[in-house]
C-alpha cells in the first residue's frame, strides 16, 4: 500500500491510499480499497510513501 499526496485536487481529493499497480515516468496508477483505478500524474505528486497495514 502507498499513500500519495498531491499539490492539487484530483477528482475532488488530494490524498490517496491504495496499491501501486503501475508506475511510468508520467503517472502512478493506484487501485483503491474498492478496486477503483486512480491515475495520478507525477507532476502533481507532492509526497508518496509506503504504508504498513496491520
TrEMBL record:
InterPro entries: RimP_C, RimP_C_sf. Residues 2-49 form the Ribosome maturation factor RimP C-terminal domain. This is Ribosome maturation factor RimP C-terminal domain-containing protein. Gene3D superfamilies: Ribosome maturation factor RimP, C-terminal domain (2.30.30.180).
